[in-house]
């Protein structure tokens, strides 16, 4: 049985009753008064000149912990493991850190030596709602500074960020931590600052053409794409979170299909670590079912119809329409002059343009080269891989061949 304002099929968003999105549908704000937006905690409180709490709040209203993604009118989007190193230039590959309890005496001794570094990390990567205080649980990571490069810092940052978003999406929450989310959300759509109630109908009306699907493609000369960022499973730090890139394949340049159901309860830490180390198996399972997109927001023909029954693509209540599955929009790609009928057989499809053909083969070449580079863990500065790096840069369009 569906929920008013929410999914018709409740099998996916099983906690919908607790989300702020449900309350907004009935006109209930989580904070009464003229400022219903979330407070921005930690480093974010110092960035009010360019951080927009209204826009951040509008995004958190569309986040769901079951899928680790934002639910917007044309599908799901998320903050990926690829986004983190592109923004913060920190390591993706490495082992997961397990925070441990620290005695007061031990914490004091370590903090005296590492106070500035720990504060810097907690204010940028591992943010929480403690504002100026730093949690001692991260101190053991810094006992030996020469081993810091063995940790997957990007995973630690994403675990912290997802956990903050899971909390912020609940009706009872009043504050949000996590500066990484700030940077990524603002890259999705360029809008001036407005009040939170004004943002909601604007976001309800978003179309795929309003989104920058892969904002860091021009940054690949500095940060290469790593195939491990397509890993499907659990990431862990001081908690565990499901990381499900197969739900947001368009952000990786692949055709979006109906994804499998999210995994059940998290496995043991040992199992999580084992799955992470064997990531190739899980990446292959995702990519075997898809193809490079021919235009940025491409999906299978059945994806949106499915999505509109298991999600709530809008948060504003249409008072003139009873509860039920909202009509599925028919988006027309910017690369197409006319929409193609969904039931048209492949033989009747319009011929591929030379631009679409070039884009498609570039995706195929780039994907193959990036898989090889990730597999052998190649270094751009290693002369052994000079030709591979050249071919990758040319396929990306980052280097001329003249």
From TrEMBL:
InterPro entries reported for this sequence: AminoTfrase-like_pln_mobile (IPR019557), MAIN-like (IPR044824)
Source organism, top-level taxon: Eukaryota
Signal peptide annotation: none
Record field: compositional bias (Low complexity): 334-356
Any Pfam family: PMD
Region (Disordered): 318-360
GO BP: any one term: meristem maintenance
Domain called Aminotransferase-like plant mobile: residue spans: 51-95, 113-175
PANTHER family: PROTEIN MAIN-LIKE 2 (PTHR46033), PROTEIN MAINTENANCE OF MERISTEMS-LIKE (PTHR46033:SF8)
Listed name of the protein: Aminotransferase-like plant mobile domain-containing protein
